[in-house]
Amino acid sequence: MKKKNLVCIVCPNGCDAEVLMEDGSEIKILSIDGCTCDKGKEWVEQELTHPMRTIASGIPVEQGDFKLVSVRTDAPIPLGKIFDVMTVIKRRRVKAPVNIGDILVPNPAGTACNIIATRNVKFTE
Amino acid sequence: MQTIKRDLVIIGGGPAGLAAAVSARKSGLDDILLIERDRILGGILNQCIHDGFGLHTFKEALTGPEYAQRFINEFQSLGIEAMLETIVLSLDKDRALTVSSKKGFLKIQAGAVILAMGCRERTAGAISLPGTRPSGVYTAGAAQNFVNLQNIMIGKHIVILGSGDIGLIMARRMTLEGAKVEAVFELLPTPSGLARNVQQCLNDYNIPLFLSTSVFELHGKDRLTGVTVATVDERFQMIPETRRFVPCDTLLLSVGLIPENELSLNAGVRLEPATSGASVDDQFMTSSPGIFSCGNVLHVHDLVDHVSEEAALVGRSVVDFLSGRTLSTLPARIPMVTGKDVRYVLPQNISGKEDVTLSLRVTRPMRNASVLVTDRGRKVARKKLIRLHPAEMIRIKVKAKDIETAEKLEVSVQ
Fold first, then answer.
1. What residue of B is the nearest CA neighbor of A82?
2. Residues of B with CB below 8 A from A53's CB?
């Protein structure tokens, strides 16, 4: 039996999770202690098998009342794909207007998410 | 100079001001004016493009701009008046304001005022960093503004002093933008920011965090070339033999936030040393009648959800005050005091006539302990917690029926 400690990132509570697993290379969870919600337990299971994260960045806007439109992934992406997704975000340029929720890049780097706008940017001359 | 009258003037259009305005309008108040110095509403949320906002309020993880927009939409759909690009120059105890905008100066006589100006970052000057004065030294929030709003990259090799949440968030942000974050140094033996941010902003990107370590000298003539860091002992004194040079072109400071209360002081508002914010009663009214305070200008919060909730309560309180219901029926006669391991508790005085939610912070990290509210030794409320941390505000409800006869309430950790 082996033990692993994780800090849950689901919410600002940041619960300290203590996981007991069977020995061996395959991950077999015996118990999860310290999580105070079910979402946290789900996150811990996911974190041990294939960790996922959401990321946020910005994309330059032409003729907007902001220079950048802030963006985020609308679903978590694999931790190991973050920099591939960032490369796609960095190449993108958009034209105003942009509205919150607009899909600016579908499925970046082959991930099952969209890059969506998180700010309204109005058109200006 | 032109003088206008308003029932309620709200100073600041960030999350606190917006939520207070919306709540006051929904409680039946028509004549509301919100004053904001920026060209847009939303305050600091506009530059906080990371997610994690709104988990309590909206049950989803929004970014700062999205969270702000929900309140801005509500504010605008209720037809509340806002003056943008307008600065309040003065406020007196009789609630007379002088404001300046592109149209010129204006005097406003308010029936009630809500202070919602937020807070400022502690700067390099405020922490007296020795060494040269090169470019490349920024507060984390200023850097966040450059990178997230103005599309200006601020450096390539970055050192961060202080492990506050904004510093941790910026460590990740700069890494994603292609900069190398060499390390985060924290004077205290524990991280100042939330544990989840240490995990997802530092550990995910292999950024080292050095605790009990601080920056002791800046180097560089025009641009920063590096910093001298060293470990400290229990009394925060530098251990000389641990001094080492860390090359970098940029230093970000995440060393604390201070409520911005210059206006409040001129209005005769009494401030609390522990919070640097106003002393308030359970209606969130300050020592100057008719002047209320909420959000980060009252005490620095870690969650915007709590700011919105607090401000909504203040919006309702103001409507009660303006209709003459507050002062006569709810004198705040019970003082709240801090006991063992509690750094501050808010409100500082309560009426005992209504249920109240206390906000408090502990002095040090603890595990498996209870926050206890007592009246002369009698237990009034208790909250058991697995983890207690100074970075995490604790809230505890106290019922009116338990404190009707209370003389003084003490909050402590047992």
1. B176
2. 200, 204
